[in-house]
Amino acid sequence: MELKKGKKFYGSVTVSERGQIVIPAKVRKDFDIKTGDKLLVLADLEKGIVLTKANFIMQMMEGTLSAMQKIESIVKSERNPKS
Fold first, then answer.
1. 33, 27 contact by CB (below 8 A)
2. Following CA atoms 32, 35, 39, 41 in sequence, which dihedral angle do they give, to the nearest 10 degrees?
3. How many angstroms separate the Cα of 59 from the Cα of each of 5, 41, 52, 75?
4. What pLDDT score was predicted for residue 14?
5. Integer-rounded Cα radius of gyration of the chain
6. Nearest to 57 by CA among 37, 30, 39, 45
7. 9: closest CA among 24, 22, 29?
8. Where is pLDDT greater, at 62 or 13?
9. Distance CA 27, CA 21 (A)
10. Using CA atoms, how far apart are residues 41 and 51, in angstroms rounded to an integer?
11. Is 22 or 76 the better-scoring residue by pLDDT?
């Protein structure tokens, strides 16, 4: 099976009796996941589950906030043009 550039298949994991999984070493290396890192579990009931590092989501949110502040500044300057 050929995957698109940037896409990888790391194998499979098995859920233990306690609901735990082991994240494969190659995944931990590729995504720089270290002991103690926080991961978020996101889900779409139709599409599946995603694990992501919490700091990645924070970076996305900071980028979104920055973009919103720029848009707000543009809107304000259009409402109050300097003559």
1. yes
2. 120
3. 23, 17, 12, 24
4. 96
5. 20
6. 39
7. 24
8. 13
9. 13
10. 5
11. 22
Q: Which residue has the tokens 């270290």?
A: 34
User: Residue 82 — φ and ψ, nearest 5°?
Assistant: -80, 125
Which tokens is 69 given? 């502040």
pTM of the model: 0.61
| pLDDT digit string, tens, across residues 20-74 | 999 999 999 999 999 999 998 989 999 999 898 888 777 777 777 877 888 888 8
How many Cα atoms are found within 13 Å in the side-chain-facing hemisphere of 37? 17
Q: Which residues contact residue 27 at a Cβ distance below 8 angstroms, ignoring those fewer than 6 apart?
A: 10, 33
φ/ψ bin of 48: left (φ > 0), alpha (ψ from -120 to 50), beta (otherwise): left
Both structure tokens of 15: 């859920």
